[in-house]
Write a structure and sequence with these properties.
With 254 residues, the protein is an alpha/beta fold. Helices cover 39% and strands 17% of the residues.
Length: 254
C-alpha cells in the first residue's frame, strides 16, 4: 500500500450539520484534519452577498482548505452553473453531484461546466436511506458504470459513498474494482447495528481492503472524505475516532 502521506483525509461538512460554518471550522482546529468538502447548507451561492463574504473570510482565516463542494442536487439543466462558479471561487478542485441517471442532457451539461470551470465532477450514489424513488438518483454500480462508460471524459467521474452502497447490498470493493480509475472522491461512511450512517470503521466497511484497492486501481489521489450522520454531541469525538481508524488501516496495509 502507498505511504500514508499519499492519502488526503478530509471531512464532509454535513458531519456538523447542526453547527454554523464558523463552529465547524473551530471544531476542525482541534483535529488533524485540515481539508473539507463543503455542504451547501453551510455556505451556498444562494446565500446573500454579506453571508458569502463572511463565510469566505472565515474559511480563509482558518487552517482548513476547501477541496470539494457538494453534494449538488440537480433536477434539470440550467441549475448547476452557479454552484460550479461558487465552487471554483472557493478554490475547490471538484464538485459532487446527484441527478437522475437517465438524464443524459444533464450529464452533457456537467461535462461542459467541468471544462469551463476547471473542476472535476464526482457522481454521488445514494440509497433507500434518503430516497424513496431510486430512479431519481444513482443507487447502484450499474447506474454509475453506464454513465461513465458512455461519457469517457477526464473531468467526469464518481464520488463513491461506501455507506450507501452497503445499504444497497453492493460491495464497495466491487465498485472500486469496476470504476477505480474514474474515482474523484470517496465518502467513507459505514453502516452498523447501531447506526445506519456510522463513522468509517464502526460497522461492516472493510477499511484495509477498500484502501488497498485504491492502490490497485490508481485512485490514491482521491480524497478520503469522512462522513456520517450522528448526533451533534458525538460528531467531534467520532471524527477523531474515524481519522484514527483510517490512518490505522492505511499504515496496517503498507
Amino acid at each position: 500500500m502507498s505511504n500514508p502521506s499519499d492519502y488526503s483525509i478530509s471531512v464532509q461538512s454535513v458531519v456538523f450539520r447542526s453547527r454554523s460554518l464558523g463552529d465547524l471550522l473551530d471544531a476542525l482546529e482541534s483535529t488533524d484534519i485540515d481539508r473539507l468538502e463543503l455542504w451547501g447548507e453551510h455556505l451556498s451561492p444562494e446565500d446573500d452577498e454579506a453571508t458569502i463574504a463572511a463565510g469566505r473570510r472565515r474559511v480563509e482565516e482558518s487552517s482548513v482548505a476547501v477541496d470539494g463542494y457538494g453534494v449538488i442536487d440537480i433536477e434539470d439543466t440550467g441549475e448547476a452553473r452557479d454552484s460550479f462558479a461558487f465552487a471554483a471561487d472557493l478554490g475547490a478542485e471538484y464538485v459532487t453531484v446527484n441527478y437522475p441517471p437517465a438524464r443524459d442532457d444533464i450529464t452533457e451539461e456537467l461535462v461542459d461546466l467541468a471544462e469551463a470551470f476547471d473542476l472535476d465532477v464526482g457522481i454521488h450514489n445514494y440509497s433507500t436511506v434518503h430516497h424513496d424513488d431510486l430512479s431519481t438518483v444513482f443507487s447502484g454500480i450499474d447506474d454509475v458504470r453506464s454513465v461513465v462508460d458512455r461519457y469517457d471524459h477526464p473531468r467526469l467521474g464518481v464520488c463513491i459513498d461506501t455507506g450507501h452502497f452497503l445499504v444497497m447490498d453492493e460491495s464497495p470493493a466491487d465498485v472500486i474494482s469496476t470504476v477505480g480509475d474514474r474515482i474523484v472522491a470517496v465518502h467513507l461512511k459505514d453502516t452498523s447495528d447501531d447506526e445506519i450512517e456510522d463513522l468509517p470503521g464502526a460497522g461492516t466497511l472493510d477499511l484495509p481492503t477498500v484502501l488497498g484497492l485504491f492502490d490497485d486501481h490508481g485512485a490514491v489521489d482521491a480524497p478520503l472524505v469522512v462522513e456520517y450522520e450522528l448526533p451533534d454531541d458525538r460528531a467531534l469525538p467520532a471524527l477523531r475516532e474515524a481519522e484514527e481508524n483510517v490512518r490505522t488501516a492505511v499504515e496496517g496495509g503498507r
